[in-house]
Fold this sequence. Notes:
Blueprint: E1 8-9, H1 10-13, E2 17-19, E3 25-35, E4 44-52, E5 56-61, E6 65-68, E7 73-75, E8 90-92, H2 93-97, E9 101-104, E10 114-124, E11 130-138, E12 150-154, E13 158-159, H3 171-178, H4 182-191, H5 194-203, H6 206-213, H7 218-226, H8 230-239, H9 242-250, H10 254-263, H11 266-276, H12 283-286, E14 293-294, H13 300-307, E15 319-323, E16 334-339, H14 340-345, H15 369-378, E17 383-387, E18 393-398, H16 399-406, H17 411-416
Parallel strand pairs: 2-7, 14-15
Antiparallel strand pairs: 1-10, 2-3, 3-4, 3-8, 4-5, 6-7, 9-10, 9-13, 10-11, 11-12, 15-16, 17-18
Helix pairs in contact: 4-6, 6-8, 8-10, 9-11, 15-16
Amino acid sequence: MSTSPSRVFAARLVGLPVFDPQGDQVGKVRDLVVAVRSDAHQPRVLGLVAEVFGRRRIFVPMTRVTHIDSGQVYTTGLLNMRRFEQRPTETLVIGQMLDREVTINTGGAESGLRGVVYDVAMEQARNRDWVLSRVAVQEPSKGFRRKGQTHVVDWRDVEGLSRRDEAQGATHLIAALNEMRPADAANMIHELPRERRAAVVAALDDERLADVLEELPEEDQVEILEHLDSERAADVLEEMSADDAADLIADLPPETAAALLALMDPDEAADVRRLMSYTEHTAGAMMTPEPVILGPDATIADALAHVRNPELTPSLAALVYVCRPPLETPTGKLLGVAHIQRLLREPPSTLVAGVLDDSMDPLRPESSIDQVAAHLATYNLVAAPVVDDDGRLIGAVTVDDLLDHMLPENWRDQAVRRTRDG
């Protein structure tokens, strides 16, 4: 193995690209796998969990790692593409070891202090094995202090590293998850043991949990939602996009769905009920009810200000829908759409109504999934308006919505659970 840093902290490894000997990226680091036999035996690092081909997780033995530096991990390139399956004797550092409660026994002033693990460091032993060498521990917060004091100590000076606590918190794992894209965070949560997943879900804020739920397989979504109290479940559903919330509520028992809809904000619930009223796999059922809508007197500067909203997906931000008032779906009559490329070519003071594309017919809510796909392909679009019988805008279908419904059921789960033969 070539020269590597003498000590590498686990939290800094997560997200680093993994390369083969030719310099081609094959994945990203998502976790470390260690064998923790007891507090008397130094934990050995068995390998990395790497994410490849989108969402599949594989095991990369440390014997296949040739070099680690501050920004990348290099391997021999001889990787087994079978999906990683954790064994009972293995521990995931990020997924299971962070937030574990331990006691520091240094024999000095720190001895007897209790805290939680917020990071661990690994390094190579003389026999070339990678082992956990240092443990970063944070004391509980005291008084008005925002954070407790931190200590980085030798692994021998920590008691409780091998103990699994059912009441283990999730503060530092949440911090790691919040640095990831929702899809990546969802993938990690999907792989967590049931009790650990419950602790993470309880600690996530409603907005972040909503983002993650939208990326999880259907059975995970239902399981998580059914274990939340009704008030929080309704709050999380309000934070989700209306079309994703409608799909999730449709998978719940009717009495549970009715109860949650009754607890939701009336306006949010009305959008969800409207989407649920359309036949499955039609434009009405898959559309987003809140595209960027402006009146004919809005300027291009107004339009650009709206599409800069970081909460909009790229496909939703690609079109501005111009309608007569009222400007909330279902709106007044749709006058046309303005493409962001055209907006960028015109003076900001120009009225958006002057740059409309009114040459294409909008979709109808009863349009089938094949008709939606053909429409987007024909006009080279990433989004398209949906109108009712009176020509009023009721929503927009994006390519994201279309792909969600065209892919096989539980495609998110299948993306993780590939066949073991790769």
